[in-house]
Amino acid sequence: MPRGLSGTIPPAPVTVGGPRLVAVAAAMFLAVTLVVAGDTAGKALGGLGVHPFLIAWARFLLALLLLAPVLGPLGANLRLAMHPGLALRGAVIAAGIASILTALRTEPIADVYGAFFIGPVIAYVLSLLMLGERSDLARGALMGLGFVGVLMVVQPGLNFRFGIVFALFAGGMYGLYLVLTRRFAGRYRPGAMLFSQLFWGSVVLAPTGLWHAGSLLGQPTPGRLALIVVSALGSAAGNYLIVRISRQVPASVVAPMVYLQLISAAVMGWLAFGALPDPLALAGLAVITASGLGSLWFAREALR
């Protein structure tokens, strides 16, 4: 069946070495930086009094309206979006984004992403259990090290912060999202994958988004509208790139690459809000980054 009608494409085999891994890592860094830019705009909106669930809904809806014309035939995309697995994937990432925006309302960006990075650990484990991907002792140990870094950021029992609970939940949802993306990325066009994600995010978050819409519609200032556009397009563009990468790279390889997000989060948090983690959390971020970079080193074997 023609690609444009079915929306499905056969998975492309991957036979690449070290240089290709560097290129994939660079593309992933761009993708996660775009996502962080969207979340930074979302945090700024929260500081202006816009409810995080409204921000999340507006992000999905605006991205859907702006990108639907270039993501492929509307009818075909809608039919594919009805697939239960794609619907689940859309609902999962909607819950994750709403949760991380809630966490960002009260917590520094770097701390939120530190807790959020329970996600790659979960994705790594689920990719082994659900997708049958292979691992080894070294990469498993590095994922364990990353989990230790998350605990250093979260600091359970030392300084409980309710916003961090939302960040941990968002990380869990993102880990499941990464695995679902890998599972379906070889079967559907990236455009169809992104459409289903935006469509279901808009549907799932519509009730809470509409409930809080008055906080934005009452004062539709140019600054707020601009931040919503940046939040929507940054997140959509970043996730589109992740879908494309996931078509060619195993989830157990994509997962550690997401750790690159910490660099962007720390820099943007400092530039936009002047926020820096406390010493223990900063050490935890360094541990998480080291774990991710180490996992990338060992992941090169999975790309040969």
Can you characterise this structure?
- This protein is mainly alpha-helical.
- It contains 15 helices and no strands.
- It is globular.
- The N terminus is likely disordered.
- Helical content class: over 70%
Radius of gyration based on Cα positions: 18 Å
Q: Order of SSEs, N→C?
A: HHHHHHHHHHHHHHH
How many β strands by DSSP? Answer: 0
Let me know the average pLDDT.
79
Low-confidence stretches: 1-16
Tell me briefly what this model is.
This protein has 304 residues and is mainly alpha-helical. 77% of the residues lie in helices and 0% in strands.
Write the layout of secondary structure elements.
Layout: H1 3-6, H2 18-47, H3 52-67, H4 74-81, H5 84-104, H6 109-116, H7 118-130, H8 137-154, H9 162-185, H10 190-211, H11 214-217, H12 222-246, H13 251-257, H14 261-273, H15 279-299
Helix pairs in contact: 2-5, 2-12, 2-14, 3-5, 3-10, 3-12, 4-10, 5-9, 5-10, 6-8, 6-9, 6-14, 7-8, 7-9, 7-13, 8-15, 10-12, 13-15
What labels describe this entry?
304 residues, 77% helix, globular, disordered N terminus
